[in-house]
Amino acid sequence: MAKAEAQEAAANEIISSDPATGREIGRVRITTPDEVREAVERSRQVFHMWKTTSFAERRRLVMRAREVILDEMEPIAELISAESGKPRGEAIALEIAPVLDLMQWIARSAEKMLRPRRIGIGLFGLLGRSSQVVYHPLGVVAIIPAWNYPFSIPLGEAVMSLMAGNTVVIKPSELTPLTGVKIGEIFERAGFPKDAVQIVSGAGETGAALVEAAPDKIAFTGSVATGRKIAEAAARNLTSVVLELGGKDPMIVLADADLEAAANAAVWGAFCNAGQNCASVERLYVHESVAEALTRRIVKKTKQLKLGPGTDPDVSVGPMSSERQIRIVERHVDDFREAGAVIPIGGSRVLPKTRRRGEEEKGSGGEFEHGSGAATQDDFSSPFLDVSSSLYFLPTVITGATNDMRPMREETFGPTLPICTFATEEEAIALANDTEFGLTASVWTRDIARGRRIAEQIEAGSVCINEHLYTHGIGQTPWGGFKNSGRGRTHGLEGLLELVQPQHIHTNRITLLPDAWWMPYSPTALETFRGFAAKFATGSLLKTATLLPQLWKRIKELSRR
Fold it and tell me: Is 244 a catalytic residue?
């Protein structure tokens, strides 16, 4: 009986494991579909109160939540690292610091950005009319984030939703459930009203239940396939969605680029978070005249990286998040090899040298650091352990890549850097745009005007010149993609406007005279309407002035009736 009860309990729980060690970190109870619906209904009830709170009160609570995060920064970073596998430094630099910055910005700026806005209505203003737009919160915002940034994505989207006057239900990834629970605790400790922010835990079934519960907005971050399913399900309730989906982001390095800077950026952009970024450098296009020099620098810098568990402060690349994801990387690397590409460094899973069969995990360190020459599996793996049990994959540089190779077309989401050459600016642009995705891109050149010209021709939601990847960490800038990389925007003014509905209010301050377009119609009305089309609709005050006699004739006609 005890065993059966234990199995039943396990079926109702998500087990969170450290990808660096495989050890269990903790468990979270799965929220049932009925409980998800109840959570959305509670959120809707709280919304009616929360939307009436002042911006000053919302600001106070958000800033208090910042203080909670700062007070617990180290344990939060440790939790993020343990669940996602990323180095603790990246947990702070790429998750905690950016969301703290976003929180202070949106807390201080939301009121101004959502202030009623007067609209210029041209010549109608001379008739005593005026128009303005006021912004109303939507209601319940459902946030379904990805596992690769389990803290900054949902927390940032939640704070922006709350500042806009909405309430929030978050369904964290099943790979990082404890980080999701921690987000709920932060808002609770900050003093937000009960149920203003709720966490529902589970896998796909829980996410589907949240979509079917008909929230007023859905913000999803994840794969194109899942994004399509969410959009289809949301359409049944006419629920609007913001979808941040996949990426296959290009980096274009022109012949005049600073190659040292470009190499550093390429290594960081391809390998941070073990390459598990939707805006990673997944395709590097370099001018053929500098390709060898750039590649040489990249390989050299890649050899300096240390792999290992995120608890080690010297580690630059941690394990990948799951067996499923590392298998995708292995398949893509094998495809590159079979297609004739060359792999000067990396290309395989690895294990720490210091581990031996029967040894306990020590939570720090094997000998992962690259030595001289190209690194291979033998350089890093213990012969006493099965490499297939590891979630570590060597940072991998690939040369001789071309766009007709399958891995150049599918999202890899791992520590690989394929390098392709081009001869002309036009060819580089065509290669960069030759994809179903369009999230971010970068152009590297000392000629900023040329860089801007190229950037404007790249089909991507964000294009950086002499930068890559990090603009998700700038809360003031919009984030989102073209093509299959998504719909809608998060962050920035554009992201805030996704979380409200605009209402247009039009006022007529002159009611003593009838409107010339009112009924009943007559030959005089028809002549006046012709004048509106030919003169008033030009927007020209001088041409409209010639219409005044006919307009006055029409108004007198209506006044007599």
Answer: yes
